[in-house]
């Protein structure tokens, strides 16, 4: 019998790209909250999920992940970076949720995990200033005046530029860290007539959330036009609030959200 949770399936299952959840994550997260054109935001939201509030949040993340700990000793399997946009939605019951229309990732394991949860991940190149709590010119320590930069590109096209300036005040949880995320998962098939299959709304089963100290700031956030990545319409309108901090979470799986 061939073994493995995810392809490739082999006699011992050691080649499988993924192990099943739980998946554990820790890393640096730069959250960028802003107002967005409400009609544009609504056009990215699945029908019947809810009404766009006119708020959105970009996130630049540098993660380290593991299943049972072995990846931490072989970090090429553990470390990756990503950028994603969340659109805030209010449901009919008044609950605030986030929906992710766009996300870029630079590692295949994290991409496959995300697709299983409905995160619409695409490969990209993500760079982010690392902040260390050291008094040194190169440390970009979390204090007033420190500048945190980031950029995102895909297929040789720059999509996102970030320049955040910290103010040393206490930051607050934004976007991903403020409200649950609901994603849209498809089941495309090329058997017979190609079809995207049924679409399901999924919500991650999140546990063991740990938030470290956060530092607030303001940011310049720019999205660029691209022929194949529709991020420019979700550009900020007005000021951008920034919050930088360390985060750890565990993903135990996902649950389907009934409309």
TrEMBL record:
Which InterPro entries does the record cross-reference, listed alphabetically?
Acetoacetate_decarboxylase, ADC_dom_sf
TM ranges are none
Q: Which GO terms describe its molecular function?
A: lyase activity
Leader sequence range is none
Q: Which Pfam families match?
A: ADC (PF06314)
Q: What is this protein called?
A: Acetoacetate decarboxylase
């Amino acid at each position: 019998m061939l073994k493995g949770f995810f392809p490739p399936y082999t006699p011992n299952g050691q080649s499988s790209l993924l192990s099943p959840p739980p998946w554990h994550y820790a890393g640096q997260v730069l959250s960028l909250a802003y107002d967005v054109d409400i009609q544009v935001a609504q056009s990215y939201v699945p029908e019947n999920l809810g009404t766009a509030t006119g708020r959105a949040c970009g996130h630049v993340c540098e993660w380290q992940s593991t299943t049972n700990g072995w990846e931490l000793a072989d970090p090429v399997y553990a470390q990756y970076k990503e950028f994603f946009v969340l659109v805030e939605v209010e449901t009919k019951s008044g609950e605030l949720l986030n929906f992710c229309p766009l996300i870029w990732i630079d590692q295949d394991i994290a991409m496959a995990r995300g697709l299983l949860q409905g995160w619409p991940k695409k490969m990209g190149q993500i760079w982010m200033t690392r902040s260390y709590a050291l008094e040194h010119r190169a440390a970009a320590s979390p204090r007033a005046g420190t500048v945190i930069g980031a950029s995102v590109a895909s297929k040789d096209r720059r999509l996102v530029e970030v320049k955040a300036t910290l103010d040393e005040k206490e930051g607050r949880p934004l976007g991903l860290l403020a409200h649950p995320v609901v994603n849209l998962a498809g089941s495309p098939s090329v058997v017979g007539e190609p079809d995207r299959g049924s679409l399901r709304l999924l919500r991650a089963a999140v546990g063991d959330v740990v938030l470290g100290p956060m530092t607030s700031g303001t940011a310049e956030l720019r999205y660029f036009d691209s022929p194949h990545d529709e991020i420019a319409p979700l550009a900020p309108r007005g000021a951008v609030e920034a919050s930088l901090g360390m985060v750890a979470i565990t993903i135990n799986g996902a649950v389907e959200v009934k409309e």
